[in-house]
Amino acid sequence: MVGCFLFFSCGVPQGRLRISGTYESFKEGADFLIVSADGGLNNIDTLHIVGGEFDNMYDLHDDATYHIVYPDHSDLMLWAHSGDHIVIKESG
């Protein structure tokens, strides 16, 4: 699993969730799955890495949990609230 630091900030409109981040070891062509079993997503989505970065915006009206699934099948669990901006930074 990739080590990560998470940062949470505000500034995203209510009813929306922004998840962005940097993965320097995945420069191009990497896709991570993102899933939510409790209403955060209607289906499986992907975080497409371009230049080591990604930036996705989702509709989110209630609290939800998300799992980012990495190519080695490990995952990162996120707890999200409407209006959150979650920033993920690879630590190594």
Q: Can you offer a commentary on this structure?
A:
The chain has 92 residues and is an all-beta fold. Helices cover 0% and strands 57% of the residues. It is built from no helices and 8 strands. Strands 1-8-2-5 form a 4-stranded mixed beta sheet, with no helix packed on it. β6 (64-69) and β7 (75-80) form a beta hairpin.
Summed up, what is this model?
The chain has 92 residues and is mainly beta. It is built from no helices and eight strands.
Helix content: under 10%
Query: What structural category arises from helix and sheet content?
Result: mainly beta
The H-and-E topology, N to C, reads as EEEEEEEE
What's the rounded overall pLDDT mean? Answer: 84
Strand order of the largest sheet: 1-8-2-5
Using only C-alpha atoms, the radius of gyration works out to: 12 Å
Outline the low-pLDDT stretches. Answer: none
**Cα shape:** globular
Percentage of β-strand residues: over 45%
Distance between the termini: 10 Å
List the total number of helices.
Answer: 0
By DSSP, the count of extended strands is: 8
Q: How many strands, which pairing sense, and closed or not: the largest β-sheet?
A: 4 strands, mixed
Q: Could you list some keywords that capture this structure?
A:
92 residues, mainly beta, 4-stranded mixed β-sheet, 4-stranded antiparallel β-sheet, 0% helix, 57% strand, globular
Topology:
Layout: E1 4-9, E2 16-22, E3 28-35, E4 45-50, E5 53-59, E6 64-69, E7 75-80, E8 85-90
Parallel strand pairs: 2-8
Antiparallel strand pairs: 1-8, 2-5, 3-4, 3-6, 6-7
